[in-house]
Design brief:
alpha/beta; Aldehyde Dehydrogenase, Chain A, domain 2; six-stranded mixed sheet; binds NADP nicotinamide-adenine-dinucleotide phosphate
């Protein structure tokens, strides 16, 4: 695996936009793309300015209005989605290695989970659209009322750096399945896998020109030009809450909608009757998978006082034993943080936690890792109250906080004491308690006795400042279609005749 990494790191890459069926020449402002495990520059991104974004939106718009895609049969769309699924799996090793190179996420996670999941998104929507129909109402005598779900048009799909391929593939699969065209904007920090996917799809000529377009560049330049463009019909965004608010403001000017998958600070509640082995395993995964850089991290952990010392001790001991290092090493459990800013940010939270009375139980400092990258010791703090900044703000790092609770009502109130509402985790062996607590948690998803399970049939998304809308199955249909009503007079009563 190390050879593969060296090869990838040596290969020069120029990341540009893909517009109307071809890659554009490199001319935009150069932005270095970094391998976070070595700080080496592995590619150069050429930023798309407003004019280039305009060309991409025009290509998507022309493909939508006059091309075959919006009118393609479900069978044709299914075939294309399955061809994309196959293309991703055929290139799974390469895509996983690129994702690891650019994000620092251990290869065993990108190869084992992220890339298969990216492919599965296309397969899922290929199957889903074959089962979907509209609605028919016959209650109005003499009339037939139909409800159909039309494609919405040009979709701007904007993704984050923490799982670039898997999360943006979900948006592409949903948008394409329902007959839309799109312009994709990855994070400037992690553009490599999506650029490679576009190259693979281009080489296989899977889609008509203009149906998928890619613009690369910073949020301030490329992202703002795309989300504020008058000719897009919606934005599907995954990223931070503050960016989501900026995009919604831009959309409001055009009276357009957006689906927002935003930040989280998810509570994980361990009751005294939980299967303690599974709860600790799950809380570790929920805090440290993806280098802890996960929107759904269940890293705000509440544990019942009667088992607190045992659980917290075991968690802190195992955190100190986590294998930190080269993300290409199959033994590595934690890779580097994404960049220096993130590394500094996390340390400022350790300082703020200590200043507010929290106790540091593990980690908290930069560490060697391998290759001089942005490595941080996974961190555990015990907090005296939920009001601390480390319990209220999304840290987006391998950083878990523990709080101790005494009863169910109290812990539900503290779990809900957050501006976010993405996921709630409940660890208990008592079914009634699981149902009772799940019902009262103010989150878009509740996971009971499991850390991370994404069932695409269900919707994923947040309440409060964690988002708007749901991704998956019917949630994606609502996001990527316009509901249209068509009322047909079959044997209607005579109309009143005006002007006679
Ligand atoms: P971010 O800074 O908000 O950026 C997300 C994307 O938006 C990037 O492509 C960014 O471009 C772009 N962007 C920035 N400003 C923009 C603007 N004014 N207009 C249009 N696009 C703009 O978030 P991030 O740091 O990449 O990702 C971490 C955040 O994502 C965390 O808060 C995490 O919880 C959230 N997240 C949520 C989910 C979910 O499903 N709810 C999943 C994963 C991550 P640049 O990066 O190039 O500036």
């Amino acid at each position: 695996m190390k050879d593969l990494r060296a090869e990838l790191a040596r290969a020069p890459r120029a990341v540009t936009s893909y517009v109307g069926g071809g890659f554009v020449a490199t001319h935009g402002a150069p932005i270095p793309v970094i391998d976070p495990s070595t700080r080496a520059v592995v590619a150069t991104l050429h930023e798309a300015d407003a004019a280039e974004v305009d060309r991409a939106v025009a290509a998507a718009s022309a493909a939508f209005e006059t091309g075959p895609w919006a009118r393609a049969s479900v069978a044709d769309r299914q075939k294309v989605l399955m061809d994309i699924h196959a293309a991703i799996l055929d290139h799974a090793d390469e895509l996983a290695a690129l994702e690891t190179l650019n994000t620092g996420i251990p290869l065993r996670q990108t190869r084992g989970m992220h890339v298969p999941r990216a492919a599965q998104n296309f397969r899922f929507f290929a199957e889903f659209i074959n089962q979907q129909g509209g609605d028919v109402y016959t209650q109005e005598p003499g009339y037939l009322s139909l409800v159909t779900y039309d494609p919405i048009g040009v979709c701007a799909l904007i993704g984050p750096w923490n799982m670039p391929l898997g999360l943006t593939a979900m948006k592409m699969a949903g948008a394409l399945a329902f007959g839309n065209t799109c312009v994709v904007k990855p994070s400037e920090i992690t553009p490599l896998t999506l650029a490679r996917l576009f190259q693979i799809l281009h080489d296989r000529a899977i889609l008509p020109d203009g149906v998928i377009n890619l613009v690369n560049g910073s949020g301030a330049v490329t992202g703002a030009a795309l989300s504020g463009h008058p000719d897009i019909d919606m934005v599907s965004f995954t990223g931070g809450t503050e960016t989501g608010a900026r995009i919604l403001t831009a959309l409001a000017r055009g009276i357009k909608g957006g689906a927002m998958e935003l930040g989280g600070k998810s509570a994980s509640i361990i009751f005294a009757d939980a299967d303690m082995g599974r709860a600790v395993d799950g809380a570790m995964l929920g805090s440290f998978m993806n280098n802890g850089q996960m929107c759904l991290a269940g890293s705000r952990i509440f544990v019942h006082r009667s088992v607190a010392d045992r659980v917290i001790d075991e968690f802190a001991t195992r955190t100190k034993a986590l294998r930190i290092g080269d993300p290409f090493d199959p033994e590595t459990e934690i890779g580097p943080m994404i960049n220096a800013a993130q590394l500094d940010r996390v340390q400022s939270y350790v300082a703020s936690g200590l200043a507010e009375g929290a106790k540091l139980l593990a980690g908290g400092k930069p560490c060697e890792g391998s290759g001089g990258g942005f490595y941080l010791e996974p961190t555990v703090m015990r907090a005296p109250s939920n009001a601390l900044a480390i319990c209220q703000e999304e840290i987006f790092a391998p950083f878990a906080t523990f709080q101790v609770f005494d009863d169910e009502d109290e812990v539900i109130a503290r779990a809900n004491d957050s501006r976010f509402g993405l996921v709630g985790y409940v660890w208990t062996q008592e079914l009634e308690r699981a149902m009772r607590v799940s019902g009262r948690l103010r989150t878009g998803t509740v996971l009971v006795n499991t850390p991370i399970l994404r069932d695409l049939r269900t919707g994923f998304g947040g309440v409060r400042q964690s988002g708007l809308g749901r991704e998956g199955a019917k949630g994606s249909r609502a996001m990527f279609t316009e509901m249209k009503s068509t009322i047909i007079a079959l044997q209607p009563p005579a109309l009143p005749r005006l002007g006679i």
